[in-house]
Amino acid sequence: MTRASYNDIAQWYDQFLRERPVYMEVILPGLLTLVGEVEGEVICDLACGQGWVARELARRGAQVIGLDLAPNLLALAQRYEEQEPLGIGYVQGDAQRAEGLSDHQFTGCVCVMALINIPDLQATFQSVRRILKPGGWLVFAIPHPCFESPHAQWTSLSDPEHPLGRTVTGYFDERQWFSSNPDGVRSRVGDYHRMLSTYLNQLAAAGFALERTLEPGPSDRQAERVPGNREIPTLLLIRAHLSDGPQAENISRG
Ligand SMILES: C[S@@+](CC[C@H](N)C(=O)[O-])C[C@H]1O[C@@H](n2cnc3c(N)ncnc32)[C@H](O)[C@@H]1O
């Protein structure tokens, strides 16, 4: 499999999203639970891709701006906006600096399944801090770092009560990796694996206070596709807000 960027696989990813029930049936309900009412909120969809999350939030009354690195995904997002005008603005840029976005522009920020594609997590949380108003919130969704470590695999168990398990390897090895599954995203663009403690410590280091987390179970259709999801969550969603306290300076990784 040739290694690619999201810009190279924009059309393929757009199709992939529409075929996988996990996005609309698992991620979206979890995201909306953590985001809450959005009427009147000014929200950044960071690393928005083709904009499906931005559209869901805008349809519910939020004013949304999406930022992404990949011009081809932004062109798709813009095309969806032309088909169904929702007032969403799109900006091309790097989430690690978010230079096209102003200080304190947003009341909230969402980042769905994208922190794993961005090399510098601390820089990204610092960008989110900069663009949020005081007290602003961040909700992000990531593959569950405890169960989606490099080359983790489903395994058959002999226990009829729990027929599937998961072998987790390489948890402490924080690095970019590429899966060998030819049907997935990770074999194409890779994934930066980080420990759960790294996400939580870096969030705190950027001045965020944890509010709530979700480890959603599958919808019926998702459980049919991935039966192991009945036993083990593969997603983690986190809500945090900017705290007034002093920003921790030197919280190290791990
Ligand atoms: C798995 S896709 C998720 C896209 C969208 N949030 C969704 O749920 O479909 C990851 C996205 O991260 C974007 N991305 C990767 N690195 C980025 C960066 N440094 N700054 C902004 N976007 C980036 C990619 O272009 C891609 O759209």
What report would you give on this structure?
It comes from Ktedonobacter racemifer DSM 44963. This is Methyltransferase type 11. Keywords: Methyltransferase, Transferase. This protein is α/β, with parallel strands linked by helices and 254 residues long. Residues 248-254 have low confidence and may be disordered. Strand 2, helix 4 (71-83) and strand 3 (89-92) form a beta-alpha-beta unit. Helix content is 30%, strand content 25%. It binds S-adenosylmethionine (SAM). The site of S-adenosylmethionine has 19 residues, from helix 3.
Name the CATH class.
Alpha Beta
Q: Please state the CA-atom Rg, rounded to the nearest Å.
A: 18 Å
Are there runs of 5+ residues with pLDDT below 50, and where?
248-254
Helix-and-strand structural type: alpha/beta
**What percentage of the residues does DSSP assign to strands (E)?**
15-25%
* Helical run tally: 8
Our measurement of the CA-to-CA distance between the termini, rounded to an integer number of angstroms, reads: 32 Å
Strand order of the largest sheet: 3-2-1-4-5-11-10
Distinct ligands, ions and cofactors found in the model:
S-adenosylmethionine
How much helical structure, as a percent, in the residues? Answer: 25-40%
- Give me the count of strands: 11
- Tally of distinct domains: 1
Query: What characterizes the major β-sheet?
Result: 7 strands, mixed
General shape: globular
InterPro entries: Methyltransf_11, SAM-dependent_MTases_sf
Organism: Ktedonobacter racemifer DSM 44963
GO molecular function, one term: S-adenosylmethionine-dependent methyltransferase activity
Keywords: Methyltransferase, Transferase
